[in-house]
C-alpha cells in the first residue's frame, strides 16, 4: 500500500480557480510533485480534487497545511473537493480541518 503512486492533473482554471485533480494517496513518498505544483500556483483560489485520494499520512497533512499557509499569506483560498471520510477524519484528528473549505465536487466551468 505504501508504494501507491500519486498522479496530479492540472485541470486549469474553472470559475477563476485553479483545479488540481489528485489520484492516489498523499504521503511522504508522493508529496514532492504536489508541493511543486502548489508553490507555482498564483491564482486567487485553489481547488484540490480529492475524489480519488484514498488517504493521507502526516506528511500529506503537512503538505496541505503548507498549501494553506502559502495561499493564506497572499489572501487566497484553498478548497478541497470530494474528500472521503477517512481523509476528513485525518484532518479532524490533526485539527487542521478548519483551514479548508469543502465541496462535494469540483466547480464546473460556467
Task: Itemize the secondary structure elements and their pairings.
Blueprint: E1 7-14, E2 17-23, H1 31-39, E3 45-52, H2 58-73, E4 77-81, H3 85-93, E5 101-103
Parallel strand pairs: 2-3, 3-4, 4-5
Antiparallel strand pairs: 1-2
Summarize the structure in words.
The protein has 110 residues and is α/β, with parallel strands linked by helices. The chain has one domain (7-103): STAS domain (Transcription Regulator spoIIAA, 2-Layer Sandwich), CATH 3.30.750.24. It contains three helices and five strands. The protein has helices at residues 31-39, 58-73, 85-93, and strands at 7-14, 17-23, 45-52, 77-81, 101-103. Strands 1-2-3-4-5 form a five-stranded mixed sheet. Helix 1 (31-39) links the parallel strand 2 and strand 3 (45-52). Helix 1 packs parallel to helix 2 (58-73). The model has no long low-confidence stretch (mean pLDDT 90).
Amino acid at each position: 500500500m505504501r508504494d501507491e503512486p500519486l498522479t496530479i492533473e492540472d485541470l486549469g482554471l474553472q470559475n477563476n480557480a485553479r483545479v488540481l485533480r489528485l489520484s492516489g494517496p498523499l504521503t511522504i513518498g508522493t508529496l514532492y510533485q504536489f508541493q511543486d505544483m502548489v508553490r507555482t500556483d498564483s491564482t486567487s483560489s485553489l481547488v484540490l480534487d480529492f475524489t480519488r485520494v484514498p488517504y493521507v499520512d502526516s506528511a500529506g497533512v503537512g503538505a496541505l497545511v503548507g498549501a494553506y499557509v502559502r495561499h493564506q499569506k497572499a489572501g487566497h483560498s484553498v478548497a478541497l473537493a470530494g474528500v472521503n471520510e477517512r481523509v476528513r477524519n485525518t484532518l479532524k484528528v490533526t485539527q487542521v480541518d478548519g483551514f479548508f473549505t469543502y465541496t462535494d465536487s469540483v466547480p464546473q466551468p460556467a
